Amino acid sequence: MRSVSFSVPSWFPSHAPQAPPRVHLTDQESAVFLWLATGASNAELAATLQLSVSTVKFHVLNIRNKLGGVSRLQVCLLAALAREGGRLDDDVPDDTVSGDVSDGGAAAVPR
What we know:
Helices cover 41% and strands 16% of the residues.
């Protein structure tokens, strides 16, 4: 199972005043997270990742909760920073980031 792990920047809202937390996302959460950086709607994410809209909403909520209950906009910003700043601790090609989807395929996210 492939997952994304990354460091949350210190300026990002966190309940813990210590070092920024490490966040571990599942394969599908990773794919949704990376596509959120594009500003896509839940319906667009669902179509792209071949998931239902309710599944996308579930993953977005899980991601927000794992980040301390932040807003969707904050998640989008963090996803964009993670993709552009190389803050993802995942070995992925420079031109795409892939995440497994429910049918066993992958959806590439353009950089």
